[in-house]
Design brief:
Length: 207
């Protein structure tokens, strides 16, 4: 009886050891896969950041008080978009929200900017409203891509089981990318609000 009990106990111990080994092996494998995916995404983001911008069309009346000095977008493939965001798109190429440099050429302080990107082929638009800015006469103002995307919280588990909240990188947020097909059909414009409450937009339309 004692011998049978010892054999069963030993078998149980060996089974537990094997199960623990399997769990450890799976955990290590998962950690390696996660690290590899993180490294791949980081490399991809760095490559995109170093890539050249595509300039966009600018719709701007001659008397525009806020001149768009330069504006451009980044381009990635459908596959890279899926790697970054985890989302599937039907677009062959995907373009980022614009980054732009502007200058106040008026004699009044500007306190609000509505920056508009329009797809001329579909007449659809994506806008970014910037309130409570302060752009004095002659001053320049830069619009950064990351500023157009609200931080996306990401909760991760540490090795000790504790949870930690991180901020998902901007490029991994689908809102960082435009839902428009062709860069040659993209046009940007602005609507301006002055400190005295008055507004300016291109004649004939707000965009």
């Amino acid at each position: 009886m004692n011998r049978t009990f010892k054999v069963l106990a030993l078998a149980a111990i060996l089974l537990v050891v094997c199960l623990v080994g399997v769990v450890i092996a799976q955990t290590l494998k998962s950690e390696k896969q996660t690290a590899a995916l993180t490294d791949e995404k980081t490399t991809l983001i760095e490559r995109i950041q170093k890539s050249a911008d595509h300039p966009l069309r600018i719709k701007e009346d001659a008397d525009a008080p806020l001149k768009i000095l330069s504006v451009g977008v980044k381009e990635i493939s459908r596959d890279d978009y899926q790697k970054l965001t985890g989302k599937i798109t039907e677009l062959n190429s995907v373009y980022s929200v614009p980054e732009a440099a502007l200058q106040n050429t008026s004699d009044k302080k500007i306190t609000g900017v509505f920056f508009i990107t329009r797809d001329l082929s579909t007449n659809k638009l994506k806008g970014m409203m910037m309130k409570d800015v302060s752009i004095g006469p002659g001053q320049t103002f830069n619009i950064k891509r990351g500023g157009a995307v609200k931080a996306d919280p990401l909760t991760v588990a540490e090795n000790d089981g504790t949870l930690r909240e991180l901020t998902k990188e901007s490029m991994a947020n689908e809102n960082y990318w435009l839902p428009f097909a062709g860069v040659d059909q993209l046009q940007v414009s602005v609507v301006v609000t002055f400190a005295d409450g008055s507004k300016w937009s291109n004649r004939g339309s707000i965009n």
